[in-house]
Amino acid sequence: MTVPLVAIEERSIRRRGQLFVALAALAWSSAGVLQRELSVGTTTQLAGRALFACVALAGFVAVSNRGRTIVAFRSMGTAGFAVAICTAIASGSFIVALNHATVANVLFLQAAAPIAAALLAWIALDESITGRALVAMGVALLGVALMVGGPGSGGVLGVGASLVMTLAFAATIVITRHRREVSMAPAICLSQFLVVVAVAPFTHPGTVTAHDLTFLVLLGVGQVGLGLAFLTVGARLIPAAEVALITLLEIVLGPLWVWIVLGERPALIAHRRRRRGHPRRGAPDDAERANSGHPQPGACALTPRRVRAALPD
Q1: Residue 163 structural domain
Q2: DSSP designation for 226
């Protein structure tokens, strides 16, 4: 009876880990829609998002450790500090990439995370890679190759920031899995504090409106705070390659939300339609796109609200 009970417990733990990682991906997928509503500069976006994420995660650490917040931060050790650095790099690169490429391109490049995480785990932790995972990684790699080669990829800055984000995120997954006996929530909180410290001198708080503040809170607390809190729990329960594969849900949902809400189509789809000679009926030209909220390749999106702000009174 012992073996079946152990097997049932292992399946329960694995499913719980899968659920938490899926919830993290769901929270992260809201980034594109929320970020497109901001009218402030990149550094101000970074600092505001990280500030509210830091506050939310600090609350999560305090609650989960029953008020022993200082002890929790001290116990994270060298591995926790490494996670903080990697997550800070990933968070900063993500916002930079969103400001210089479409949401779809950024997220499709992030699909390389399963490959990077699996390879790092194989080298560092000697974790095996299943055949199913290899097939999924191959599909992800094909999608990455198509998106990088497609128009509107964001150029060197957009693609470069996306790749840095992917590698840093993969390293975070592997370290969290390696030290799964240690809660990485304090490290994730510290990562957001590091982002605030790094970009604070370059921000412009006076440009933040009430509308911007609302969406910065949503980004920090909901998209980053909840997402990373779910990840720190789930990544300790399942293999690194599986974590990265489940987070591909963000790759599917992120472009879908901005397509539905803002009409921002993946550049590859738009390119294929143009090549076939069937442009979308009433498709705007470049000038109209600039005034309709559809982002130009390699540029920060212009939402209708940004256009109104730029017009004279």
Answers
A1: 15-310
A2: I
